[in-house]
Amino acid sequence: MTRKPSLNLRNTLVAVAALSLFAALLPPSATAAEPMAGGQMMIERAKILAQPNVFGVFTTFKLRPEWNRVPAAKRVMAADELKKLIEKHKNNVLVDVYLTRGLKASSDFLFRVNAYDLDKAQTFMREFRATGIGRNADVTETLVGLTKPLNYITKDKSPGLSAGLGSATYSGPPPRYVVVIPVKKNAEWWNLPAEQRLREMETHTSPTLAFLVNVKRKLYHSTGLDDTDFITYFETDDLGAFNNLMINLASVPENKFQVRVGSPTILGTIHSPEEVMKALAE
Ligand code: HEM
Fold first, then answer.
1. Alpha carbon distances (Å) from 113 to 44, 57, 232
2. 239 CB within 6 A, ligand 1
3. How far apart, in Å, are the Cα atoms of 188 and each of 184, 192, 198, 230, 258?
4. 217 is catalytic
5. DSSP 8-state assignment for residue 4
6. CA 218/CA 45 separation, integer angstroms
């Protein structure tokens, strides 16, 4: 005969079941990182893309004409080779690959590698250069930056805009396009009093909030790590809206402190790494 669980035990079982259900409903970013052998943590996409102190390495490649002379049977192996490399490094780096061929003269594809340690991103890129396709491609641009907590539009310094920033959500179709634009500011900017820089960044932010419904943004800081001050990264499905956003920002006074915007502007389409390699094997 099976015994009925006591009231206490039943309460405990109900509580455990409720907790398990709650954990199952949480987005992956909200669950704890899985510890790996040797104390390493698995890289979680949603988490690493939202955290400060994460390095971003952006590298564009142009395929050499020799790539077309590699037998087709070998070219198609590029997708599998990259997949295996990404798998090998999945506890150290998050890898995104974009197709720029046909949209940029200077490149065919772009890597964005996010990592908690810059040398891990370097190791991944070094090993990519040793793959079949990597050996047949030249680097045409590299940008290195670091994510940081907000400097200006915080709850304390700018409560209204901070609330607007926090409440706006992307509601367009899944973005098909990526745009990466390096930005450098002049010495005058860096010598402005903090209070004035805050006001300037508020005038930057005000007209941009309306665009968050169809543009996703991410900012990397590069001063001292590269020849630029910022790497701005955007995903959108509406390039017309993105064009309007840039025009809006061009007439904001903060624009006068920018001495480099683009050079290069990198425009590409968003695919899985294998899809990009397959397209380039054709
Ligand atoms: C959806 C559109 C955009 C929104 C909502 C937005 C919002 C913001 C916010 C809130 C900041 C301040 C971050 C902080 O407090 O530290 C910022 C900084 C910045 N934004 Fe935008 N932005 C947008 C588009 C753009 C575009 C198109 C560019 C130019 C390519 C750009 C370039 C920058 C740069 C360079 C900074 C850093 C400025 C500094 O710290 O001196 N943003 N943006």
1. 13, 5, 15
2. no
3. 12, 6, 14, 16, 10
4. yes
5. P
6. 14
pLDDT digits (tens, 9 = 90+) for 73-122: 999 999 999 999 999 999 999 999 999 999 999 999 999 999 999 999 99
Which candidate in 176, 199, 217, 260 is catalytic? Answer: 217
What is the b/e burial string over 250-264, where b = at least 16 CB atoms within 10 angstroms of the residue's CB?
eebebeebbeebeeb
Does the pTM surpass 0.85? The reply is yes
DSSP 175: P
**3.30.70.1030, 3.40.50.1240, 3.40.50.720, 3.40.630.30: CATH of 45-146+269-281:** 3.30.70.1030
Give the Cα separation of 131 and 81 in Å (integer): 7
Q: What is the CATH number of domain 159-268?
A: 3.30.70.3420
